[in-house]
Amino acid sequence: MAKDDPAATEAAAAPPSEEAVARRRAEEQKFWEAARGRKKKSRRGPVIVVGLVVGAGIAGGATFYAPQLLSSPPSAPAQPTVQAAAASAESTPKGPPKISGIGKAADGATLTVAGQTVKLHGIQAPPSGLVCRDARTEYRCGEVARKALEGFAGTAPVTCTPSSGTQDTAVCRNQRGFDIASLQVESGWAIVAVRSSQYAAEQAIAQRKEAGLWRGAFARPELWIQAAAVR
Predict the structure, then answer these.
(1) For the domain with range 99-230, which CATH number is right: 3.40.50.150, 2.40.50.90, 3.90.190.20, 3.40.50.2300?
(2) Which residues of 81-105 are buried (b: 16+ CB within 10 A; e: fewer)?
(3) Strands 99-107 and 169-173: what pairing?
(4) 57-77 pLDDT, tens digit each
(5) Global pTM exceeds 0.70
(6) In this structure, are residues 123 and 107 in contact, taking their beta carbons and an 8 Å threshold?
(7) For residue range 169-192, what is the model confidence (pLDDT) as tens digits?
């Protein structure tokens, strides 16, 4: 049996030097740091990729919407001021204002409302002084027509809306909302004006019933003023 070498045995039993221990610890630390780095990289790889993609998208969006991002946030549309609204209203073309008041009949187709003379649109009526004839006698058809119109206007205020953007004629309604000219034509105490057909249906009813002027003979409208002057 071979005898152990005393020098080798002593070297094996002797503890490692401090330099060797430090070198080994440094190598082990590097090994474990490298291992942890590889493990962390393998876990965070997809997150890093996604982060890069999202970051690129944000960067692209920032480039595309640069003006909006650099400027202040869009504010709500400005509401027009009271002065601006009033100026806009004043600049809008308006027709003549409506006329309201108690209606007094001047003749069978004309009212005086709030101190203004208003001729009813689309109709004609005999002048107050005109005399007509029916089957039995003569009568002042102009005065009868005037009274009929005043009755349709009533004692309450009427409202007259100028027609065709002028003050020459108007459509007037009584307190109940009825068109006064329509009532006057259907009663037979006014006829449809020349070159107008607005109340043709009402006139047909009056003719069929022989109401008002249609119960007898009366001068043609173009002769009414002349005939009234003779009387």
Answers:
(1) 2.40.50.90
(2) eeeeeeeeeeeeeeeeeebebebeb
(3) unpaired
(4) 434 443 333 344 334 444 555
(5) no
(6) no
(7) 999 999 999 999 999 999 999 999
